[in-house]
Amino acid sequence: MPPAWLVPVLIAGVMASMVAAERIWPASQARPEWGANALAYVLTLAGQLVRGTLPAVATAAAIAHFGGGLIDLAQWPFWAGATAWLITMDLGEYLFHRAQHSIPFLWAMHSLHHSDRGLNFLTAQRHFWLEPAIKSVTVWLVPALLLRPTPAILALYVVISLYHFVVHANLRLGFGPLSWALNAPRYHRLHHSRDPAHYNTNFASLLPIFDVLSGAYRAPRAGEYPATGLEEAVQRHWELIVWPVRRWIPFRRASVKAT
Hints:
By secondary structure, the chain is mainly alpha-helical. The chain has helices at 6-24, 34-51, 56-65, 78-100, 104-114, 131-136, 141-146, 151-161, 163-167, 185-191, 209-214, 250-257, and strands at 71-72, 147-148. The chain is globular, with a radius of gyration of 19 Å.
C-alpha cells in the first residue's frame, strides 16, 4: 500500500492542474460555484468521519479483512484482478447513477450535483452528504462481497478514481471517435446539459461502454459545449445540508425573496 500522505498529495496535484487547464482551455465562461462545491465536499467528508466509515476502498478492505469476497483476486494476475475490480465497481456506479435519475428520493439528493451551472472539476465532489452512506451499503458493498481485492488493487483504484476530477472539468477535452472507450469532459458535459435533447444520456462514471450497451450513449458533436445546471440553483450555502427537503423549510422562501 502507498504511504498515507500520497493520496492527499495526488489530489492536490490534480486540482492544481485542473485549475490551470480550465483557465487556459475552458469549454464555457460560466462562473464556477467554488464555494458551494467546496462546502459540499467538506460536508461529505465530515459525514464519512461521523459514521466512522470511509468510501468504497474502506468498505472493500473491511469485508476482505473478515474473509469476505467469493473470488480472491490475489490468485489472479495483477492486471486481470485490477481490471475485474474496476469494471465491477464501475458497473455498480453506473447502475446506481441510473437509479439516481429514476427514483425520486435518490434524485432529490443527486439533483444537488446537477444544479451546478458552472460545471468544473470540483463539481465531481458536489454531492449530498448522505449519498456515500447509501452507496456504502449498495454499490460499494456488493462488489466487495463478490470479489476480494488486494491492497495493491484498492490503491490503484483510488488513483484511477481521481480521474473523476478530469471528467467534470470545464475543458474542451474529448476523445472523438473513441468517446465510447473512456469518459471525458466533452462527453460528460452532455449529461449535465440544460438542453432537453441531451437528457438521459451519458451516465457513465469511467467507462461509456455501459452507455453503449444500455442505449444511453450520445457522442458529443464538434463545438458542442452546452450550458449546464438546473433551473433551481443553490440560493444559500445552508441548503447544502438540507438539500432534498429545502422546499419544506418555511424561512427559505422569505430569504430568497429578500435577495
